[in-house]
């Protein structure tokens, strides 16, 4: 692993475990077996680390959106699976993306908000497409989007690789719960839900 | 407000905004216009404040469970409404209950886990009751419970009193989304969903 990647990796872990404010550069250097000063050869500030971790997590989530294809039901299935896989594979970074971004100051705060919004709007686009095609039924595509993203995001709190259900099983059942909430019934409109 | 209540109120706000580790007793004293030392006339430690805030939030959530009555559909509706109301009214305390509890050490950590589990089990009991009565359909009452609690808990991230939908409207639509996910269709089995 490149030195910079390693620094970002450890920073993500510390920020997610202890919180951004409670993580000092000295502590970070200690975890990397570096002198405090030599850390600054690689990065300009603690805040630069935070925005970098947020960017990395955002890239993973936005990558899920880019890979979606097929009808709205297939897209929601792939979205649920992809979103949960990012959380499972990137638990510390996802936690920072979900929480610690708030401690950024402008202009980084604005950038983080824009990245989060881009993902939300992408998800809402899928929901809206389903509504427009008459496949999903919901009073408000906006609230339905917040509902499904809430159900997905919170999994970082309870998902554990050693849990009783595999990620694949959780994804399957979660997709079915989300699709039902969107009005797609088993054996419903699309004949495969 | 009693002095101790005021201390807990401010502690909840600081812990939720900056995180438990990043909040110092000195800072807390400053927000209360107290000398650092005189804080200790009211409380023994920073950790005592954390467990107290967790207990207060837990009492509010458990109070929702105790107030449930009627059939499983009515219970889920009241649960969604009650849970969202606690979050809206107690945003800082709920945030601490959702996140900062992890920074407790034993035996407080164990107590916080038990309180959170008691609530989860209560919710799962309602889901299971609906399954047993043939009103809800779900592959796993456990996963459906985690799904609905995830959807509810995450609202503390985006709910704002000044938002476009009132708490009442959000609760109504959320309850319908949750009930659909549990297999209760509009005009479905219970004739009123």
TrEMBL record, chains A, B:
The keyword Transcription applies. SUPFAM superfamilies: Homeodomain-like, Tetracyclin repressor-like, C-terminal domain. It comes from Thermus thermamylovorans. Residues 1-61 form the HTH tetR-type domain. It comes from the Bacteria. The keyword Oxidoreductase does not apply. GO terms for molecular function: DNA-binding transcription factor activity; transcription cis-regulatory region binding. This is TetR/AcrR family transcriptional regulator. InterPro entries: Homeodomain-like_sf, HTH-type_TetR-like_transc_reg, HTH_TetR, KstR2_TetR_C, Tet_transcr_reg_TetR-rel_C_sf. PANTHER family: HTH-TYPE TRANSCRIPTIONAL REGULATOR RUTR (PTHR30055), HTH-TYPE TRANSCRIPTIONAL REPRESSOR KSTR2 (PTHR30055:SF175). Residues 24-43 bind DNA. Keywords: DNA-binding, Repressor, Transcription, Transcription regulation.
């Amino acid at each position: 692993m490149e030195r910079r990647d390693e620094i970002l990796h450890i920073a993500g872990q510390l920020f997610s475990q202890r919180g951004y404010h409670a993580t000092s550069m000295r502590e970070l250097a200690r975890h990397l077996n570096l002198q405090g000063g030599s850390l600054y050869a690689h990065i300009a500030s603690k805040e630069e680390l935070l925005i970098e971790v947020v960017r990395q997590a955002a890239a993973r989530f936005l990558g899920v959106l880019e890979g979606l294809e097929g009808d709205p039901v297939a897209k929601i299935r792939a979205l649920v699976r992809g979103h949960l896989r990012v959380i499972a594979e990137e638990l510390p970074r996802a936690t920072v993306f979900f929480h610690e971004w708030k401690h950024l100051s402008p202009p980084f705060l604005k950038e983080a908000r824009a990245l989060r919004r881009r993902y939300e709007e992408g998800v809402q686009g899928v929901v809206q497409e389903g509504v427009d095609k008459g496949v999903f039924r919901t009073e408000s595509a906006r609230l339905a989007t917040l509902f499904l993203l809430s159900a997905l995001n919170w999994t970082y709190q309870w998902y554990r690789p050693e849990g009783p259900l595999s990620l694949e099983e959780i994804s399957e059942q979660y997709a079915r719960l989300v699709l039902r909430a969107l009005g797609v019934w088993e054996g419903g409109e699309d004949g495969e839900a």
